[in-house]
TrEMBL record:
SUPFAM superfamilies: Homeodomain-like, Tetracyclin repressor-like, C-terminal domain. The lineage of its organism: Bacteria, Bacillati, Actinomycetota, Actinomycetes, Mycobacteriales. The keyword DNA-binding applies. Residues 7-67 form the HTH tetR-type domain. The keyword Transmembrane does not apply. Keywords: DNA-binding, Transcription, Transcription regulation. Residues 30-49 bind DNA. This is TetR/AcrR family transcriptional regulator. InterPro entries: Homeodomain-like_sf, HTH-type_TetR-like_transc_reg, HTH_TetR, Tet_transcr_reg_TetR-rel_C_sf, TetR_C.
Length: 189
């Protein structure tokens, strides 16, 4: 069998992590299980990650960074449509079960919770704060907007539907959230 390296190996490892996470929750994501699932060795994993929490955190952060746009579209509305459409695609796509499993299991895994909050959610908070700052500089977001609320407002509805109600997450919902909730919230009063 040909030895995999670089991106090919990285993809196999991260795919194994996501599959194990969806099927067994975080407890099922051990270095041994990932090595077996990815058809590699534990030493290969340990050369890249010191422990399973680091591997989980990096994999989840990769998923978030790949799925959630963070480029400047030129307007607050455009930025928020892009961000919420990215969340909606993530929450309705192949990794939706992974996200549910990670969130549900984090109640029993303080180390994973801390890593997820610091790295994945922390990254999103920084990106959303930067998005709001760009809006303030352009004049389409009021300077006194409560950033800690504005950065979570639209996403919280999507998370609620994913984790609690199971109600559909559609593009119409995203547009309604942006136009009827977020823009009025950040607009000058």
């Amino acid at each position: 069998m040909k030895r995999r390296r670089g991106d090919e190996l990285d993809t196999a490892i991260r795919t194994a992590v996501l599959r194990l996470l969806a099927d067994q929750g975080p407890a099922g994501v051990t270095m041994e299980a990932v090595a077996a699932e990815a058809r590699t060795s534990k030493p290969v994993l340990y050369r890249r990650w010191p422990d399973r929490t680091s591997l989980l955190r990096d994999t989840l952060l990769d998923v978030a960074r790949a799925a959630i746009p963070h480029a400047d579209t030129g307007s607050y509305r455009g930025d928020m449509l892009a961000v919420l459409r990215g969340w909606a695609a993530l929450f309705t796509g192949a990794n939706a079960d992974v996200l549910r499993a990670a969130v549900a299991a984090s109640a029993h895994d303080p180390e994973l919770t801390a890593a997820f909050q610091a790295d994945v959610i922390g990254w999103r908070k920084q990106e959303m704060a930067a998005l709001l700052q760009r809006g303030i500089e352009r004049g389409d977001v009021r300077p006194d907007v409560p950033v800690d609320i504005a950065r979570e407002l639209g996403q919280s509805v999507l998370w609620h539907r994913l984790l609690v109600t199971g109600d559909p997450i559609t593009d119409d919902l995203v547009v309604t959230l942006v136009d009827d909730v977020l823009i009025p919230f950040v607009a000058a009063r």
